[in-house]
Write a structure and sequence with these properties.
Layout (H helix, E strand, L loop, with lengths): L11 H9 L5 H17 L4 H28 L13 H4 L4 H26 L1 H16 L13 H26 L14 H24 L1 H7 L4 H30 L13 H13 L3 H27 L1
Helix pairs in contact: 2-3, 2-7, 2-8, 2-12, 3-5, 3-6, 3-7, 5-6, 6-7, 7-8, 8-10, 8-12, 9-10, 10-11, 11-12
């Protein structure tokens, strides 16, 4: 374990921060940044819906982190042999009941913050919001936990990428173009450009999970947690990582080749950094090497998304 912690040595505040895992928040901010950049580009920027979308996304991210911490511990997936960052439930820093309660409260706050977005975007946002919260719980909880049956990568790609970016664009476009409390999807609120722009965020967000699962492959297999990495093995998991990176850089090139100016190529400035992370993922197995790679993949997501949004705005 890379971040060994004793209950006696860790304050309650630090323990809760460890459980919330603020280092994962780029996965919540990135889709909002890209969706907002495209909204500015298309002349449908609405600041309040964009801000509330970020708050909701961040709460769902933190709630999912709490739920993962709790369910992985009670299911026995987190053990002393795990090489990842300290999990507060498994390590005894916070009781299981408290972590479970924190997950419920955080998801509840996400639903509460989403009521304004439901007013702006109507029934589609209500359905997406409830499905996102349910999936956050079902990632490691419930009768068929997605992460335990090789579906975690698909979950992240869809909800932290495609749904999050297009949803951010949708609520802003709906605020500008449509009446409140729409039943259907108003015209001009879901575009092909928004769907395409979501793919780099989806790809790099999924790569964060790939690094995590490659690092934990052996302990997950022993615990009966069948992630996609366990199913694919080291070689094909690394192929997946590189293929998702390729998708992340192909999309800005496609935008440039169609109707957008050369500034959409700004994410290519992060290619050397991405190559360095990929080199580590493709050659290392230990937590000592892959934990820093996990953090660097999160930073790559933030940088790529910020530059892509900037390029769209300019």
């Amino acid at each position: 374990m890379t971040e060994v912690a004793n209950a006696a040595d860790v304050s309650r505040t630090r323990a809760w921060l460890m459980a919330a895992r603020p280092q994962t928040l780029p996965a919540a901010a990135a889709p909002v940044i890209v969706g907002t950049g495209l909204a500015v580009c298309d002349g449908v920027f609405a600041p309040l819906p964009a801000l509330v979308a970020f708050v909701g996304a961040a709460l769902i991210q933190v709630g999912t982190n709490f739920a993962n911490d709790y369910f992985d511990a009670v299911k026995g997936a987190d053990t002393e042999d795990r090489e990842g960052f300290t999990r507060v439930t498994q390590s005894g820093l916070i009781s299981p009941a408290e972590v479970k309660r924190a997950a419920a409260v955080t998801f509840g706050l996400a639903v509460l913050s989403g009521t304004y977005l439901v007013y702006v975007g109507g029934v589609p946002i209500l359905a997406i919001g409830l499905l996102s919260v349910a999936s956050g719980v079902a990632y490691t909880g419930g009768p068929y936990p997605l992460g335990y049956y090789g579906l975690g990568d698909l979950f992240v790609f869809v909800f932290f990428g495609v749904v999050a970016v297009t949803g951010t664009y949708y609520v802003q476009a709906a605020a500008v173009l449509a009446d409140p409390l729409a039943v259907g999807v108003p015209e001009g609120t879901v575009t092909a450009a928004a769907l395409l722009a979501s793919l780099p965020v989806a790809a790099i967000s999924t790569d964060i999970l790939v690094v995590n699962n490659v690092r934990d492959m052996e302990t997950d297999a022993e615990a009966g947690k069948t992630t996609l990495a366990v199913l694919l093995g080291y070689r094909w998991s690394r192929v997946e990582f590189v293929a998702l990176l390729a998708l992340a850089y192909a999309v800005p090139a496609y935008f440039w080749a169609t109707d957008f100016g050369p500034t959409v190529l700004l994410p290519l400035l992060t290619l050397p950094y991405a190559a360095a992370v990929a080199r580590t993922v493709c050659t290392e197995r230990s937590g000592e090497a892959l934990n820093p790679a996990l953090e660097r993949t999160g930073k790559l997501l933030a940088a790529h998304s910020a530059l892509f949004a900037l390029g769209l705005v300019v």
